[in-house]
Design a protein that fits this description.
Layout: H1 14-35, H2 43-70, H3 76-94, H4 102-127, H5 129-135
The structure holds fe (ii) ion (2 copies).
One fe (ii) ion binds next to helix 2 and helix 4.
Family: Belongs to the hemerythrin family.
Organism: Pseudobacteroides cellulosolvens ATCC 35603 = DSM 2933
Protein name: Hemerythrin-like metal-binding protein
Amino acid sequence: MILEWKENFSVNNKDIDEQHKKLFEIGQRIYDSISTMNSYDRYDEIMEIFSELNEYVKFHFKFEEELLEECGYSKLETHKMEHHFFMKKLEREANRDIESSQKETLVRLINFIADWIVQHILKEDMAYKESLMMKR
Ligand SMILES: [Fe+2]
Ligand SMILES: [Fe+2]
């Protein structure tokens, strides 16, 4: 499987597109890690992914929300709630027993990212595209 950002996923903002690409990259890395899964301990690698994702959500959501606020996006509150939901979900995942269920954790993480891309980026983020364009 290849998790690849495509030109038609663009929300017409270079910074946000770059940030979204980064999420695809993290997803791809998790997928590669699952496919090469062997008996090695992946605990450190998984914790690294969690911390990277955590940094990423905080940075990206804040950046996006500020930009949407600037352009007076009418559905900002609902959008913020969705962001909050993804942050909580990631928090729950990080608090599970990771050590003894490493492969399951990676599989759940890849599902989490796939959901985020399909349910959020390709729907909710796409929905603000026109508001961003009108700002220019
Ligand atoms: Fe986004
Ligand atoms: Fe968003």
